[in-house]
Design brief:
The structure holds 2 protein chains of 2 kinds.
Chain A: H1 2-63, E1 65-68, E2 71-74, H2 76-86, E3 92-97, E4 103-106, E5 127-134, E6 137-147, E7 157-165, H3 167-214, H4 234-281, H5 285-316, H6 318-321, E8 325-328, H7 329-346, E9 350-355, E10 361-364, H8 366-383, E11 389-395, E12 398-403, H9 410-413, H10 434-444, E13 448-452, E14 461-466
Parallel strand pairs in A: 9-11
Antiparallel strand pairs in A: 1-2, 3-4, 3-7, 5-6, 6-7, 8-10, 11-12, 12-14, 13-14
Chain B: E1 4-8, H1 12-24, E2 28-32, H2 35-43, E3 50-54, H3 62-71, E4 78-82, H4 87-95, E5 100-103, H5 108-127, E6 130-132, E7 135-137, E8 144-146, E9 149-151, H6 155-165, H7 174-181, H8 190-210, E10 217-221, E11 225-229
Parallel strand pairs in B: 1-2, 1-3, 3-4, 4-5
Antiparallel strand pairs in B: 6-7, 7-8, 8-9, 10-11
Helix pairs in contact in B: 2-3, 6-8
Classes of the chains: A alpha+beta, B alpha/beta.
Chain lengths: 470, 235
């Protein structure tokens, strides 16, 4: 019981674990993908915003440029003020060159952005962004091509390059990353808690069902009814309950068989003890002889009963022990009749065989069919008076035993094949097992057992074992 | 001559009462209560006429005792007694050289009858004579005696009687008799009936001449054939 409980406990735990892993693992994956995509979008948006402000810085610078006295004039202080106003947290550098790259103002060492024809469609075609290095630091570059308003110039185009160090961007990106991770983590945690709670709740009826089953008494085969059972589990419980019911019925039959067998075995033994005690007490040799004869008869009955009980048990387990072969019923009838011939003859009965076909083959276990026919003949000999005519008959796929004994009354005929049912008048000893054994064997062989009685003048019985014609 | 029997049986109650019954039946009985004791008796060559052998024995089981006996080329008749009931055991016992088999519980009279058959068969094996009650038949010739007096039979009657005598306790079918007696002659099965009828008449006449009903009759069993039986029960 303890091991069973431990086992079922493990089974429930594993179901829970399975459910959790089925739900939580894909959920974690989905949230991870979601976080990744969200993070990527946020970084892109942030970069765009920073790029725009870098572009604005370049524009501001451009607006402060003017061509005076044949050279470029820049209100550096004003421009720097703008720049620093907008870009706290990262450093800005700039340079102004001619389109051909000739230095005009600012930091000459700033790298140029490569010329790409189709970049930054969101902005004027005149601005280009790029990543570069300055002073061993990664910088973001914005290069604006500006047209000076002074028309007198032969070459009015100048290039303004603004570079920004990445600290602010990186900070923002990091911030976004932690923010995303934090919120998605919380979401995952909440989902996990919900799933665990839900699975726990969902499994609870299963758990109570398990407990009910484990606490069942060994002889309790009543159906199990766990409260609020999910619809999905109903078929399982119904199957289990119907199995329990069948098991209970089987055990009930066994128990009744044992009770009956015990009663049947004790009865002759009790009679025997009484007969022997009386024989010992009786001084008259004649009476003692009569008692001893009776004791012998009782012993014979007990022996017959014991044999039949053992035969019944053997027959019940025969299915696992023997595989069917082809059995010739004619040959079988001849053999079994031969075996009973001497006994019938000695008892003054007339036992004969009537064969109507040359051969009749059925699939079956010879040993069992032998037992069945033997029981039918034995039954006829046992229940008939001295001088009974008994005929074993074989036809096309059937086998029958006919006798001209007392016959079986119609009210008994339906029951003669039941175990321990006795149709004979109380004066005749019998176990009530002989025909039950035949029935068991017939049903194992797919044969039909039928009884016909009386045949004439209220006497005679035919019991036939018939197979369906192929 | 008193037949000597070895009774190998480990249950004291059965050994005691069975032994008593056999002694009362005029036999000399020795006991062995386990396989080793049985082995000792049998190896010593006491010249037993038959062995009654239980299968479930302490020490060495009955089948090994039987095996050892037959391995030595000893043909002493063995009648196996056992409480095992299934048929495979039966086959095994007889295949391994047992002469007969009687499941427990048995009737004392049944055991005595089987034992008598074994003893007679064993004795007959020495003389090769066929015998049933007052009927006796020489092994090679067709001479038949009834209480020692020669019974005048035709060749066919003698042949039919030989078949019946060689099949004790078992029926001989009409077809079988026809094949044995008439071989390939073009006669019908009716000839067998006529033959048996005449044989019956001759046996009855012989019995009447010694005064009294016959101790042997040829009984017809419906659908099964003929068998020699004794109206008194045992032959």
């Amino acid at each position: 019981m303890i091991s069973a409980r431990g086992h079922s406990g493990r089974a429930v735990a594993s179901l829970r674990r399975r459910l959790l892993s089925w739900i939580l693992l894909p959920l974690t994956g989905l949230i991870g993908v979601n976080a990744w995509v969200g993070y990527g979008n946020a970084v892109e948006a942030a970069n765009e915003a920073y790029d725009r402000s870098l572009y604005l810085a370049a524009r501001t610078l451009a607006e402060e440029l003017s061509w005076q006295d044949g050279r470029l004039q820049l209100d550096v202080m004003k421009a720097a003020g703008y720049l620093f106003e907008n870009h706290t947290g990262s450093r800005l550098f700039y340079k102004v060159t001619t389109p051909s790259g000739q230095w005009l103002a600012g930091v000459a060492a700033l790298p140029d952005a490569p010329v790409r024809t189709q970049s930054a469609v969101k902005y004027f075609a005149l601005v280009q962004f790029d990543d570069g290095m300055y002073l061993n630091q990664p910088v973001r570059l914005a290069q604006l091509t500006h047209v000076l308003e002074d028309v007198s110039l032969s070459e009015p185009l100048i290039k303004i390059t603004v570079a920004e160090t990445m600290e602010a961007r990186q900070q923002l990106i990091q911030h976004i990353l932690w923010d995303t991770l934090g919120s998605q983590g919380l979401l995952l945690l909440a989902a996990a808690l919900l799933v665990v709670w839900g699975v726990q709740r969902g499994i609870r009826p299963l758990e109570s069902f398990r407990r009910q089953l484990a606490n069942k008494a060994d002889d309790d085969f009543s159906p199990i009814q766990p409260p609020d059972l999910p619809r999905e589990l109903r078929p399982l419980i119904e199957t289990l309950n119907s199995y329990l019911e069948r098991l209970g019925r089987l055990i009930d039959i066994r128990k009744r068989f044992l009770d009956n067998a015990a009663h049947q075995l004790r009865t002759p033994l009790t009679a025997l003890k009484t007969q022997l005690a009386l024989a010992q007490r009786n001084a008259e040799p004649e009476q003692a002889q009569a008692l001893l004869a009776a004791a012998r008869q009782t012993t014979d009955d007990a022996v017959r009963l014991t044999e039949q009980l053992l035969a019944m048990t053997r027959v019940e387990h025969a299915r696992e022990m023997h595989s069917p072969h082809t059995v010739d019923l004619v040959d079988l009838a001849r053999r079994v009749t031969q075996e009973h011939l001497m006994r019938a003859h000695q008892l003054g009965d007339d036992l004969g065989l009537e064969v109507q076909v040359a051969r009749c083959e059925v699939q079956g276990v010879d040993l069992l069919l032998h037992e069945a026919l033997s029981n039918l003949i034995d039954n006829a000999i046992h229940h008939g008076p001295v001088g009974t005519h008994i005929t074993v008959r074989v036809g096309e796929c059937w086998l029958e035993v006919e006798d001209d004994g007392p016959g079986i009354a119609p009210e008994h005929q339906a029951h003669v094949f039941e175990r321990f049912y006795r149709a004979a008048p109380s004066g005749v000893n019998g176990s009530g097992l002989g025909l039950a054994i035949v029935q068991e064997i017939a049903s194992q062989h797919g044969a039909v057992l039928s009884v016909r009685s009386p045949l004439f003048d209220g006497r005679g019985t035919v019991i036939r074992m018939g197979w369906a014609l192929k | 001559m008193t037949p000597r029997i070895l009774l190998v049986e480990d249950t004291p109650d059965i050994a005691l009462w069975l032994g008593t019954a056999l002694r009362q039946g005029g036999m000399q009985v020795e006991f062995a209560t386990d396989g080793f004791a049985a082995e000792r008796w049998l190896q010593a060559g006491h010249g037993f006429d038959a062995v009654l052998l239980d299968l479930q024995l302490p020490g060495q089981d009955g089948l090994s005792v039987l095996q050892a006996l037959r391995a030595r080329g000893d043909a002493t008749p063995v009648l196996i007694l056992t409480a095992r009931a299934s048929v495979p055991d039966r086959v095994l016992g007889l295949n391994m050289g047992a002469d007969d088999y009687l499941p427990k519980p048995f009737d004392l009279s049944e055991l005595e009858a089987r034992l008598q058959v074994l003893l007679r068969r064993h004795g007959r094996a020495k003389t090769n004579a066929l015998r049933w009650g007052p009927l006796e038949m020489a092994p090679e010739s067709s001479t038949v005696w009834w209480h020692g007096q020669v019974l005048a039979l035709t060749q066919r009657e003698a042949a039919a009687l030989r078949v019946l005598l060689s099949s004790p306790q078992r029926t001989v079918s009409k077809e079988q008799l026809h094949a044995e007696v008439f071989a390939d002659e073009a006669t019908g099965l009716d000839a067998v009936e006529v033959l048996i009828y005449r044989l019956r008449k001759k046996i009855e006449a012989a019995a009447a001449s010694v005064g009294g009903p016959s101790e042997v009759v040829i009984t017809t069993f419906r659908g099964m054939g003929y068998m020699l039986t004794s109206p008194s029960g045992s032959p």
